[in-house]
Write a structure and sequence with these properties.
Elements (H helix, E strand, L loop, with lengths): L1 E4 L6 E4 L4 H53 L27 H9 L4 H10 L1
Antiparallel strand pairs: 1-2
Length: 123
Amino acid sequence: MCTLALGAKRGAVLVARDLGPTDRIMAGLATMIVLAGVLVLIAAAAVGWFIAWRITRRLVRLAELAERVRSTERLDIEVPTGGRDEVAGGSAPPWTRCSAGWRARATTSSGSSRTLGMSCVRR
């Protein structure tokens, strides 16, 4: 918008320009920004879900195995211990570290699996 003064007591001329094309461009740009934001949000959620799944999948498997041991009271269930995380190596479930003698006593004992598990951990 431009204003031009015509002099003393003669007034002024106001020149205006149609902003329709500019408004349309801005509306299209706003739509593109919203769509890009939604796509980035979806991509970030997918990456976050994938990372969480990769971190927790072995822990979920270990929890399932622990539940199976609890429900069946079987101490001979194979537990995978390979890897480089908290599930591997020395952090394997206590029932995988029990001695053969303890397992023999555990199978003849009438105690619950919880009591047996605590006995193994205390060794």
